[in-house]
Amino acid sequence: LLALTAFICIETIMECSPCEGLYFFEFVSCSALVVTGALLLLFSLNLHTRIPQINWNLTDLVNTGLSTFFFFIASVVLAALNHKTGAEIAAVVFGFLATAVYAVNAFVAVQKWRLSSRQQSSRQSSDYIRARTESREVVHRPEIQRLDA
Predict the structure, then answer these.
(1) pTM (two decimals)
(2) Is 68 in the same domain as 126?
(3) Residues 48 and 59 in one domain
(4) What radius of gyration do the chain's Cα atoms show?
């Protein structure tokens, strides 16, 4: 919602002198809104369970990390180049708020990714131990005779 609000604020600006900062902020806010919205829809409808080949925790981590970084850069650039109009100030404020929320979400995504990595590694080690134990069990089958007897 903050990315959407920042995008709406930046779209209300009618004229700009150096427009590069405004265009960059517009691109970042729109991109973050689209990618985050697509992932939100994917997770909400449990469609991510149909594609188990993708590490969704890592995908969410990369999205939130990149969104945090680019929103911060775009907000700083727009704050440095703004003309003190109401829409630009509002866009900068919502840009920094979106940066903060994406940063919190990135922190949560890191915790979730670490937890899933630990569970996956413990599952792999338990499978290895089970396979080693089963391979050491000797099955006495009378149809197999020893040759040295």
Answers:
(1) 0.70
(2) yes
(3) no
(4) 26
